[in-house]
């Protein structure tokens, strides 16, 4: 039986991750398969990770807000599936959005979700301000130390280890600098550095023998004009977008997905559009664990890699965080949204409870600047 290490690079944009600036990410890409066009189901941590863990979209796993719902007890998580198959299961997570309260600890023998309180002494879990929440985190150096300690303690195979890095989140104040062209990228480089140290260390001790590695990000980050496709911030017309949460453009919805497996080719890029909802069925396929595929919204991506299958997978995304923003901030008119992205060719965004629709031609307008629905309805 193969082991599995699942790595979450929280808040890391795909275009930044694939820029070639980060040594560990580049090393993983050279050792495995990179899905260049992977779409998240949600632009904030709890909802997106719930999709990764369950293989179903938010309407089915029930986490649709930053802090309101818990995981649908009828859904099975990847940890529950692997534990039932005989795996030792452990996780080290690093932010309020991965707290046990949501139900994410189901199936884990060990689930470390300890984080500090906010500067004012309050519980970060209870705030829906994504920037304020971001100041309460477990740093990458601590994450890898505790993950390593768990591996040494169990000293068993097969194992499933989930490690979660939150450093790339606001406030972009890396304690050490290992590269990057701006404060956000410095945070990505910081976690990349410590992830690299961790992987090298456990490789020397044999933990990577017969181990599949899957690295992903749950959503990206809109950085108020630091990148060409940014739309958040007052100057760009969306002051309600505090990094992520309220919009469904590619800067937050296109995410990282890299799979290293002994049965996969090395240094291969897949252009075909896929989704984070496909991660669970892909993992169970790689590990030869039978699951009730008909109960999932995702599909295994293994046939795309092995047999060059073209599934033409449309991607669904949603955000109900705007209604939380409307209750707690001055932005009272922001709307919940759903989006459909079609085979890297087009995207439709619907603002719920309004007549606002956005349609983008991604082939000719990859930065989503021109709303074709608006153009056609002048």
Q: How far apart, in Å, are the first and last alpha carbons?
A: 60 Å
Instruction: Provide the CATH topology.
Output: Alkaline Phosphatase, subunit A
Q: What best-fitting shape do the alpha-carbon axes yield? A: globular
Structural class: alpha/beta
In round numbers, the mean pLDDT is 95
Strand order of the largest sheet: 5-4-6-1-7-9-2-10
- What is the number of domains? 1
Query: In percent, how helical is the residue content?
Result: 25-40%
Instruction: Return residue spans where pLDDT drops below 50 for at least 5 consecutive residues.
Output: none
Separate helix tally: 13
What structural keywords apply?
378 residues; alpha/beta; Alkaline Phosphatase, subunit A; 13 helices; 15 strands; GAG_Ulvan_Degrading_Sulfatases; Sulfatase_N
Task: Annotate the secondary structure layout.
Layout: E1 3-9, H1 14-17, H2 23-31, E2 33-35, E3 38-39, H3 45-54, H4 58-61, H5 78-84, E4 88-92, E5 110-112, H6 130-133, H7 140-154, E6 159-165, H8 183-204, E7 211-216, H9 250-253, E8 254-255, E9 257-260, E10 268-270, E11 274-275, H10 279-286, H11 302-307, E12 314-319, H12 321-328, E13 337-342, E14 346-351, E15 357-361, H13 372-376
Parallel strand pairs: 1-6, 1-7, 2-10, 3-11, 4-5, 4-6
Antiparallel strand pairs: 2-9, 3-8, 7-9, 12-13, 13-14, 14-15
């Amino acid at each position: 039986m193969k082991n599995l290490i699942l790595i979450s690079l929280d808040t890391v944009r795909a275009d930044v991750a694939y820029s070639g600036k980060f040594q560990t990410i580049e090393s993983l890409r050279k050792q495995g398969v990179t899905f260049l066009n992977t779409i998240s189901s949600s632009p904030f941590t709890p909802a997106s990770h719930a999709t990764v863990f369950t293989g179903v979209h938010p309407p089915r796993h029930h986490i649709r807000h930053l802090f309101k719902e818990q995981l649908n007890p009828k859904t099975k998580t990847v940890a529950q599936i692997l534990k039932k198959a005989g795996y030792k299961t452990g996780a080290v997570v690093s932010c309020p959005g991965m707290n046990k309260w949501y139900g994410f600890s189901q199936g884990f023998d060990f689930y470390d979700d300890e984080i500090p309180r906010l500067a004012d002494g309050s519980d970060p879990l209870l705030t829906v301000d994504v920037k304020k929440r971001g100041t309460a985190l477990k740093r990458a150096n601590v994450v890898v130390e505790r993950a390593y300690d768990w591996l040494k303690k169990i000293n068993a195979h097969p194992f499933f280890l989930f490690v979660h890095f939150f450093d790339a989140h606001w406030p972009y104040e890396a304690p050490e600098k290992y590269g990057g062209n701006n404060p956000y990228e410095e945070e990505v480089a910081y976690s990349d550095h410590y992830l690299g140290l961790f992987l090298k260390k456990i490789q020397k001790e044999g933990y990577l023998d017969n181990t599949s590695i899957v690295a992903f990000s749950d959503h990206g980050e809109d950085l108020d004009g630091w990148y060409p496709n940014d739309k958040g911030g007052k100057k760009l017309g969306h002051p309600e977008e505090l990094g992520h949460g309220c919009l469904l453009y590619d800067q937050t919805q296109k995410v990282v997905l890299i799979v290293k497996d002994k049965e996969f080719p090395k240094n291969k890029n897949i252009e075909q559009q896929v989704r984070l909802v496909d991660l669970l069925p892909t993992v169970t396929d790689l590990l030869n664990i039978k699951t009730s595929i008909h109960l999932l919204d995702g599909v295994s991506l293994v046939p795309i890699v092995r047999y060059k299958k073209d599934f033409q997978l449309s991607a669904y995304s949603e955000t109900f965080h705007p209604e939380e923003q409307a209750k707690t901030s001055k932005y009272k008119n922001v709307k919940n949204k759903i989006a459909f992205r079609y085979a890297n060719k087009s995207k439709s965004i619907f603002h719920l409870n309004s007549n606002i629709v956005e349609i983008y031609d991604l082939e000719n307008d990859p930065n989503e600047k021109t709303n074709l629905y608006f153009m056609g309805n002048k």
